[in-house]
Amino acid sequence: ASLQSRGIKVAIVVHRLNELNLDLLHELQKSGIQLISHSQVEVDSAAPKGMDIEFVPIGVDKPAFATMKTIRTRDWKARPPTIVSTGFIRKHKGLVNLVRAIRVLQKDFPGASLRLQCAEYPSDDSREALTEVKQAINECDLEQFVTLDTAFLPIEEVRSRIRRADIAVLPYDESDEGGSASAVTCFETGLPLIVSKAQIFHEVRDYSGLLERTDPETIAKSIHEILVAPEIYESLVNKMAEYNQVASWQNVTKRYIEILSR
Asked: What is the pTM of this model?
């Protein structure tokens, strides 16, 4: 109210709508505050509850890479593929199955490796997930093929490390999260991306490869199909570039200005 009394327009980005106080959100809207969500699913679910929430995608930083990724001249025997996943390490992220998928993938791509650029979150869930991932690495005898980096690093360094891989995979189970900043980070590196059918990826599904299931065999099969088909790989790279344009900060900023100008 203090900001509005000074003529400053206010917008609030909401997450996890089902956990929020709907009466308070109604009051905020009545006072002229704009509500925004990064999830179209949340926007659609808000309408029957009498709330007008605007959709704005998570902004994508201008990619720093100079050339588009390609695998047309890649010799997988000389340089085996590297798969990457990122985001906070949590149980619903599907990382145990991704580790096991690498063992399956190595049947056709000996030496295939995995980088888990996944910072530890300060919660019991994250600590337990980290233990489970380490156990899976040990059980699959993949200590030499899995890099587990749980340090919380500057985003520029995270992007740099992800960029060295060939394909990004986010095999999440369902959760109550809104939009996926991890997917955006992968797009910013220029990598083709494979995602699950989890609701969090609703906005990026059309620009990614889609997992039918998140078991190790299905994950490995999806990665395999891309690695043996340069045209599919490049199609996903082009989709990534298309999303980066749609959700560029230039376009996202215009959208915020449009909403606040009403």
From this structure: 0.90
